[in-house]
Design brief:
12 strands, six-stranded mixed β-sheet, two-stranded antiparallel ribbon, alpha+beta
């Protein structure tokens, strides 16, 4: 009899547990993985959402439209090619170079830092640099790609194409967020920038004693030679990369090609160009 009661008790317990598990499974929230923002593609530097259609879907999941206007984007994820600011891959840019000036606090990858050191050595030996008495200013060797993605998503949710309308990237990895690129400007003997970051026409007025085209040519020759080893984004006169995308994407150039084929810089990718 005792054995029988024990068996019945065990059976009831098993049924109760089965009912509890069934109820728990039934009441559990649905899988929300489809609501998580995901980068759907890769580019030359890492994760990317790709085009306006996929980026719009991505941004709607990553961001909330604020009642007061604008957007809050707390769910933009990280990913390959989006190096965080505290990454050990990033180190302070050298401030002891003779002809390369960097801003305090700027940082970059070892590949970029070694490239800047080679640039300084090349400039030290350049007769034209000595004759013109110029230096270069380096900035933006790393930029927070997640923060940029929030800004880009804000415009995408307003129906604007970042690349076509605003000269921004699409959300995801970029040469700057991957630690591959720097913005580099030529500074004349009077301290004036001869290659400003908004110079998108041949007749851009810089106020420098060195005209824009000559300054751009000198930067190309200083940076894209075999010793220094950089390449330039062909539609921006100030954007140089080390170890970035391959050149067969029609987006990068080296001297003398940059001047021969891509002057003046347009600040806008051409058809078939894949900047990221």
């Amino acid at each position: 009899m005792k054995t029988r009661r024990r068996l019945l008790a065990t059976a009831f317990t098993a049924l109760a547990l089965l009912g509890l598990l069934t109820a728990t499974e039934r009441d559990a929230p649905a899988d929300t993985a489809s609501d998580v923002p995901r980068y759907t593609r890769r580019n030359a530097f890492g994760v990317s959402c790709g085009n306006m259609e996929s980026c719009t879907e991505f941004c709607k999941k990553a961001c909330d439209v604020l009642p007061s206007g604008g957007a809050h984007c707390p769910r933009v994820p990280g990913g390959d090619g989006l190096i965080p600011g505290d990454s050990p891959l990033l180190k302070p840019l050298p401030r002891d170079l003779a002809y390369v000036r960097v801003d305090r606090g700027d940082k970059g990858t070892t590949e970029v830092i070694e490239g800047l050191k080679r640039l300084d050595a090349w400039l030290a030996a350049s007769k034209e640099r000595a004759d013109k008495n110029y230096k270069v200013h380096v900035s933006n060797c790393w930029r927070d790609g997640i923060h940029d993605g929030k800004v880009e998503c804000y415009f995408i949710m307003k129906g604007k194409n970042p690349q076509a309308d605003l000269k921004l990237a699409m959300p995801g990895a970029t040469p700057h967020s991957s630690g591959k690129a720097c913005d580099i400007h030529l500074i004349d003997a009077q301290g004036r920038n001869a290659v400003p970051g908004n110079a998108c026409t041949a007749d851009a007025k810089t106020g420098s004693s060195i005209d824009f085209k000559t300054a751009s040519r000198m930067l190309d020759e200083a940076l894209t030679n075999d010793q220094v080893g950089a390449q330039r984004l062909n539609y921006e006169a100030w954007h140089y990369e080390w170890g970035g995308a391959v050149r067969n994407d029609d987006c990068r150039c080296k001297a003398p090609e940059c001047q021969q084929k891509f002057w003046p810089p347009t600040c806008k990718p051409s058809t078939g160009c894949k900047p990221h």
